[in-house]
Design goal:
Order of helices and strands: HHHHHHHHHHHHHHHHHHH
Structural class: mainly alpha
Number of helices: 19
Largest sheet: none
Distance between the termini: 14 Å
Shape: globular
Oligomer: single chain
């Protein structure tokens, strides 16, 4: 989740989505108490994963202005960016398995994704006008600004979820679209479709996963094996830092726009997909599965995601990173700790209560009774009927998807 300078001048490098699990997909459809609507207890593993992922997202954004020419910081930045958004998006896809075009779910898509997108896509340019003194900064709902790309992507991904659930080989198809996007500079910046398509395979992978797949990477042997894998990846990031542009990690440009031959686009899509999955598996292997002090914060990752960007941008506009951050390791440690503390605070209950009106608005006035949830009762009745009849694999997956959606996505 990052924004590098572009020719049109309306973006700065710290995706980037989103994002709940980031924190990405929004905590839509969940009672304000934070408990799922069905009464099922929340899975601490996923809340822990979402919180830790959003902390890495914030740290990465705060590192960008200070990494300068430090090879160590550049390598650490590359390593984090190789998996923090893929992990966030995979969990978002996992919690979107039950999405369909029912009125109540479309309502949650509007209130939990569309409304925050419109609000923050307007707020960030206005913030730049005021803090940076740039009256020429335009507001455009078609050109996602800074962090809002994830909400735009999540909207598209979720709307197309029924298609990915219906086709026979969704992941190869999504990878094919990502590879085609990587050689198509004509896609342009509208709705940040390059990112939407190039990050699409991670969302589709999340749709294909089931709870038992996450259990596979949480065993002791995988946790131990993840240590040498992560050390090797760190060494590879150190080696690759002067040899590879970090633009590949943002998935925002085609190969031609990055100054590379067209054929490197599909190759890099596949290589980065494999590397990201390996590091994401290591990340999930180390995520604790028990209740911890930060577990409850996993339900508020969208708040931390959308709000921390104002602090990053304020520091960039006002030059705080140059004047207040000491050079060397001390400055890097200070910024890292500050980013972690800040995003933790922004995911907390008091902040969520203040900003819920724009991040998770209820908006009963805008919807008819059909969107209030009567179809939920019908869906529960159908699930009960399939259980009584013995059920099938498809019905079991459908129930898992509905339960996962109510848990709350990144």
């Amino acid at each position: 989740m990052t924004d590098s300078p572009r020719p049109n001048g309306n973006r700065r490098t710290p995706p980037s989505p989103a994002p709940s699990p980031g924190t990405g997909a929004p905590p839509a459809g969940v009672p304000r108490s934070g408990a799922p609507a069905s009464g099922k207890p929340r899975d601490a593993f996923f809340d822990n994963a979402k919180y830790l992922a959003i902390v890495l997202v914030a740290i990465g954004h705060f590192w960008e202005p200070i990494k300068g020419g430090s090879r160590f910081m550049e390598a650490a930045y590359t390593l984090v960016y190789a998996f923090h958004m893929p992990a966030f998006i995979i969990v978002s896809g996992f919690f979107s398995r039950g999405f369909d075009l029912r009125p109540d779910r479309l309502r949650r898509l509007v209130t939990g994704v569309v409304v925050p997108y419109v609000v923050f896509e307007t707020a960030y340019p206005l913030f730049k006008r005021v803090v940076d003194g740039d009256p020429r900064q335009e507001i455009s709902l078609l050109d996602p600004w800074y962090l809002t790309w994830f909400l735009c992507a999540l909207f598209v991904w979720r709307l197309t979820t029924p298609i990915w659930r219906a086709v026979r080989h969704p992941l190869p198809l999504a990878l094919g679209l990502a590879m085609l996007a990587s050689v198509s500079p004509g896609i342009g910046d509208d709705l940040d479709l390059q990112r939407v398509l190039q990050f699409l395979p991670y969302f589709v992978l999340g749709l294909c996963l089931r709870p038992e797949h996450f259990h596979l990477v949480r065993c002791r042997s995988v946790r131990i094996l993840a240590v040498p894998v992560f050390v090797s990846a760190s060494a590879l990031a150190w080696w690759a830092e002067p040899r590879m542009t970090t633009g590949w990690l943002y998935h925002r440009d085609s190969a031609q726009e990055l100054g590379a031959p067209w054929w490197t686009g599909p190759v890099m899509v596949l290589v980065l997909f494999g590397c990201s999955l390996l590091l994401t598996a290591c990340f999930f292997a180390w995520v604790p599965g028990r209740q911890l002090w930060f577990t409850a914060l996993g339900a508020g990752t969208l708040y931390g995601y959308l709000l921390h960007g104002f602090v990053v941008k304020a520091g960039d506009y006002r030059g705080w990173f140059d004047t207040l951050v000491p050079d060397g390791p001390a400055g890097a440690v200070a910024v890292t700790v500050f980013a972690a503390v800040l995003v933790t605070f922004l995911c907390s209950g008091p902040v969520r209560r203040v900003f819920r009106c724009v991040v998770e608005p209820r908006m009963e006035w805008a919807f008819g009774r059909a969107a209030a949830g009567p179809d939920r009762v019908r869906g529960q009745g159908e699930a009960r009927a399939t259980r009584e009849a013995g059920g099938t694999r498809a019905s079991r997956e459908g129930r898992e998807g509905r339960e996962a959606e109510e848990q709350v996505s990144a």
